[in-house]
Amino acid sequence: MDFATRKCVPCEGGIPAMAPAAVDEAVRSLDGWDVQDEHRKLHKHLRFGDFVEAMRFVNALADLAEAEGHHPDFTVHYSTVDVTLWTHAVGGLSENDFILAAKLDRLREARPRGARG
User: Fold this and answer.
1) Residues 45, 81: Cα–Cα separation, whole Å
2) Residue 105: which CATH number?
3) Is residue 43 part of a domain?
């Protein structure tokens, strides 16, 4: 499934988190993401050439997350960024997490040449 072509939909809870089998199937469509916390979170560790590149990505991540209405947790350590996605309202993963993950991967593909990661 091409999650990157879809749009996140508002989630107020009241729906179940994705089942582990559905999570395992969906994560196969992503590049370099791993499932953590008993199938409740998606995680990716990204490397950049330096702090400035990492922060450019984080700024683009923030713009994308705001546009999608779905906001990840992230940490920056000089030239690395760790991104964790999960849908708080359902206490686990929803399709929104996979949509945002796929779109974040496209941000990586659009990086200038010379960037690592």
Assistant:
1) 6
2) 3.30.1360.20
3) yes
Structure tokens at 43: 């995680």
> Is residue 17 a part of any domain in this protein?
no
pLDDT per residue, tens digit, the chain (117 aa), is: 687 675 666 676 678 899 999 999 999 999 999 999 999 999 999 999 999 999 999 999 999 999 999 999 999 999 999 999 999 889 999 999 999 999 999 887 665 544 444
On whether residue 55 sits in a domain, the answer given is: yes
C-alpha–C-alpha distance, residues 74 and 78, integer Å: 13
Tally of domains in the chain: 1
N-terminal to C-terminal alpha carbon distance within the chain: 24
Helix intervals (H) in the chain: 20-27, 51-68, 95-109
